[in-house]
């Protein structure tokens, strides 16, 4: 493998993911990704015919997000027919997995120029629209392992780790404050581009729509747990509730404390992002100045009931591949799927919390499933450049018991 270079990274603002209410809800997801492609081309000036592939993560690949969204986004962008596209799904890590596949392609010499990222319109194609749940409704698989919803897993993690509601809410409040500061200081400006109506050219959304800068500790404390009723009353195989199924796998918890709320869990939003990756050969021939390189990347599987604890071992694995220690990393982006996930990962790795999600995370900004991983990479790169720091580690938990991690090195 040779070096995989990051030439650029861009993203849309995140729009509220409520049908007919968020600013981006009127745009087809293909159009969101198409604007990512055109923005990268406009910034870097490459010939679209030189793009070997467009790789896009998307979780709910049905309806408007079905039919190979990536290829249709290429066509919607008006790019040449020669440019291919492929869509992929590794749940919440889909956008980052696309980056990994792109980095593998250019690093191996098989390709020279790849755009990798993702898109999710959670207002137009809500979570669960494909009807497959987490296990594809396979009754035989459920006899071996029953995968409870992520919210139940998050509450189980908080219970086993002994996290209090106050600790979870404190992380959520920090996310909101960090995001508000980042927006006020223009820290997202380098990667963020305004979304326009593809028909009229009118401005649709120029800044993140989801953050709530007026959030208070008192307001967070007043929110009701989001998964209590689901865990305690929903009857599943053999008449067991979801809580009972989770506790059968982890009896030491004795009972599940339902502590995650809408305020300390990730927000439902629409958005798209892309990362322009190039090979050593392409960089040399075109005289490009890369912004960063992918120093190491990995994925990892863990136990599928607890499910959301993989960021820590995935980070340890990618650090070994990079020849580094956790203390060597300047900035961490740990996806805020749930507050308990970030707290558990930070504790397990012994990370200084001041290095984690310094510009807020998915609790404040929202989590457009298929796009988030690519968005986090761009956010990390911008912050490395702003502060003059060198390395960032980006990691996400994944439904079904998986994790993904990337070490990014600024050049």
TrEMBL record:
The lineage of its organism: Bacteria, Pseudomonadati, Myxococcota, Myxococcia, Myxococcales. Residues 5-235 form the Thiolase N-terminal domain. The active site is at residues 92, 367, 397. The keyword Transferase applies. Residues 288-410 form the Thiolase C-terminal domain. Signal peptide: none annotated. InterPro entries: Thiolase, Thiolase-like, Thiolase_acyl_enz_int_AS, Thiolase_C, Thiolase_CS, Thiolase_N. CDD domains: thiolase (cd00751). Keywords: Acyltransferase, Transferase. This is 3-ketoacyl-CoA thiolase. It holds the Pfam family Thiolase_C. GO terms for molecular function: acetyl-CoA C-acyltransferase activity. It comes from Archangium gephyra. The keyword Zinc does not apply. Coiled coil: none annotated. Belongs to the thiolase-like superfamily. Thiolase family.
């Amino acid at each position: 493998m040779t070096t995989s270079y990051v030439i650029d990274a861009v993203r849309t603002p995140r729009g509220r993911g409520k049908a007919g209410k968020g600013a981006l809800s009127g745009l087809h997801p293909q159009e969101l990704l198409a604007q990512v492609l055109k923005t990268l081309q406009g910034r870097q000036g490459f010939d679209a015919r030189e793009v070997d592939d467009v790789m896009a993560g998307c979780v709910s690949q049905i309806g408007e997000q079905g039919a190979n969204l990536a290829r249709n986004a290429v066509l919607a962008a008006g790019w040449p027919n020669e440019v291919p596209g492929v869509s992929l799904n590794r749940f919440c890590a889909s956008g980052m997995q696309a980056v990994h596949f792109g980095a593998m392609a250019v690093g191996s010499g098989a390709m020279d120029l790849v755009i990798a990222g993702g898109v999710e319109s959670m207002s137009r194609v809500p979570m669960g629209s494909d009807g497959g749940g987490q296990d594809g409704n396979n009754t035989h698989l459920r006899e071996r392992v029953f995968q409870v919803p992520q919210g139940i897993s998050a509450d189980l993690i908080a219970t086993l780790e002994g996290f209090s509601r106050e600790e979870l809410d404190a992380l959520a409040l920090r996310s909101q404050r960090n995001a508000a500061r980042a927006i006020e200081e223009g820290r997202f400006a380098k990667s963020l581009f305004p979304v326009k109506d593809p028909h009229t050219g009118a401005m649709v959304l120029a800044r993140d729509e989801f953050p709530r800068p007026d959030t208070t500790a008192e307001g967070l404390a007043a929110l009701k747990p989001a998964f209590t009723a689901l865990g305690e009353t929903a009857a599943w195989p053999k008449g067991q509730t979801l809580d009972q199924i989770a506790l059968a796998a982890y009896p030491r918890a004795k009972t599940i404390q339902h502590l995650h709320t809408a305020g300390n869990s990730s927000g439902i939003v629409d958005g798209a992002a892309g990362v322009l990756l190039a090979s050593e050969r392409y960089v040399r021939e075109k005289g490009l100045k890369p912004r960063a390189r992918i120093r190491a990347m990995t994925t990892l599987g863990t136990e599928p009931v607890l499910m959301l604890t993989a960021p820590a071992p995935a980070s340890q694995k990618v650090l070994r591949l990079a020849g580094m220690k956790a203390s060597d990393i300047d900035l961490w982006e740990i996806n805020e799927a749930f507050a308990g996930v970030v707290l558990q990962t930070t504790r397990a790795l012994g990370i200084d919390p001041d290095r984690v999600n310094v510009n807020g995370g998915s609790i404040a900004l929202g989590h457009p499933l298929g796009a988030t991983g690519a968005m986090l990479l761009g956010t990390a790169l911008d912050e490395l450049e702003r502060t003059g720091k060198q390395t960032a580690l980006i990691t996400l938990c994944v439904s079904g018991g998986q994790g993904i991690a990337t070490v990014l090195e600024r050049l």
